[in-house]
Write a structure and sequence with these properties.
Largest sheet: none
Helix content: over 70%
Strand content: under 5%
Order of helices and strands: HHHH
Radius of gyration: 25 Å
Number of helices: 4
Length: about 140
């Protein structure tokens, strides 16, 4: 009888530890997913800040030279490609979208400042001599 009890105890322990490992794996997987979603959001924000910085520097003298135009166009293409990549990646990922939206909401004040600077820089572009050369 003691052997049967010991046998069931070992099986129960094995099942419990397997369930615990599965739960740990699921939690780790979910954490990795959240980290990836937040990394994507941060990547987009970094690209916006980089673009804003370059445009702000280029518009200081109210003139855009050919080098500045090429640099702005390159960054614009990179930004567009990243935006397309992220939109495609999350087009069917409701949970991923929700995680990114929560990140955006949690960082709303900082992001509003970043977007405001971005839009000001964009408007400054079109007040510059040479803006007509931008594609």
């Amino acid at each position: 009888m003691a052997k049967i009890f010991l046998f069931f105890l070992i099986i129960a322990f094995g099942l419990f530890s397997c369930k615990s490992n599965k739960t740990d794996e699921i939690n780790e997987s979910k954490k990795e997913t959240i980290d990836t979603n937040i990394a994507d959001a941060k990547k987009m924000i970094d690209k916006i800040q980089q673009y804003t910085k370059v445009v702000t520097q280029a518009t200081e003298d109210k003139k855009l030279n050919d080098i500045e135009i090429k640099q702005i166009e390159k960054l614009s293409q990179e930004f567009d490609a990243l935006e397309k990549e992220i939109n495609e990646k999350y087009s069917d990922d409701i949970e991923g979208k929700a995680i990114m939206e929560k990140y955006m909401e949690d960082n709303k004040a900082e992001l509003e400042k970043i977007y405001e600077e971005f839009f000001i820089a964009m408007m400054m572009l079109y007040e510059c001599e040479g803006a007509e050369k931008l594609e």
